[in-house]
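Dear support,

We are seeing what looks like truncated structure output for some complexes. This example has two components. We would appreciate it if you could run it in full and send us the complete token output so we can diff it against ours.
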Amino acid sequence: MNLFRLAGDMTHLFSIIVLLLKIHATKSCSGISLKTQELYVIVFLTRYLDLFTRFVSLYNTVMKIVFIGTSFAIVWYMRYHKVVKQTYNKDEDTFKHYFLLLPCFVLALLLHNEFTTMDVLWTFSLYLEAVAILPQLVLLQQSRNIDNLTGNYVFFLGAYRGLYVLNWIYRYFLQDHRARWIPWISGLVQTALYADFFYYYILSWKKHEKLKLPA
Amino acid sequence: DETDSVKDEL
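Here is the complete output from our reference environment:
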């Protein structure tokens, strides 16, 4: 494992900690898209089907369990916690997330490496992860006030994707010289979706102003 | 064919 991959995993983990911290400490999930969070549950469940059939390392197993567990915890908080659920911006979280599921699934049926359940679902999880942030970005755009923790959550999530791209570049040139188009292209699409957010995030950070995305 | 190591990523 190279440093970019490790840094990517850590920023991913950190983004989840920031989100859970926000929800737990402030008892509020305002500005957070439940739809994006539900998509992440599906992403992790379909990607980590090999959790009990293929052992890679203790690190991998623990991280997979943490990602599945925390994504369920976040959705549970937003749906069922009696205080937190009242802060959910239901009327602004308007993205039709199920419209993302079917195209990603069809694409995975058409474009994959092996036509096996495991491989098609793994490919589906890559396609779905690439676009899962969209409901969250749409919600941010509709929010007049983005609190710091929410902004940081999305920032770290985007940083994780950027670091994974660097990880693939490193692997290709310095490790195995093997082209992996499916993760690469879906990863690049995913990273590109953050570009606009990053631009305004850095701008507001430089000006010491509150983050606001143009409508 | 052995499993592609990219699947070891998270």
